Amino acid sequence: MAVPKRKTSKSRRDKRRSHHRLKNVNIIEDKKSGEFRLSHHVDLKTGLYKGRQVFDPKK
Percent of the chain scored above 70 by pLDDT? Predict the structure, then answer.
C-alpha cells in the first residue's frame, strides 16, 4: 500500500483545498416584478428576459 514519505504541511494541504469552497449564487431582485431570480435567466413569473416576452407564463 502506498504510504506518504513525509507529513503533508498545513500550507500544502490548504493549497489543495483552496477550490473546495462554496460558490456564491448570483441572485438579483427583478426590477419590474420584485421577485428574486438568477441573473441572465428568464423570470418564470412574468416570462420576460431582457425586456422581451419569451414565453407566456402559466396562470
Answer: 98
d(C-alpha 33, C-alpha 8), whole Å: 53
Residue pair 28/35 in contact by the 8 Å Cβ criterion = no
Which residues does 33 contact at the CB level (< 8 Å), separation at least 6? 43, 45, 46
Q: Which amino acid is at 16?
A: R
Question: Which residue, among 17, 15, 47, has the nearest Cα to 33 in the 3D structure?
Answer: 47
User: For 28-51, how does the pLDDT look when each residue is reduced to its tens digit (9 = 90+)?
Assistant: 998 877 889 998 998 888 888 888
Q: How far is CA 42 from CA 11, 12, 34, 59, in A?
A: 43, 42, 14, 16
Mean pLDDT of the chain: 90
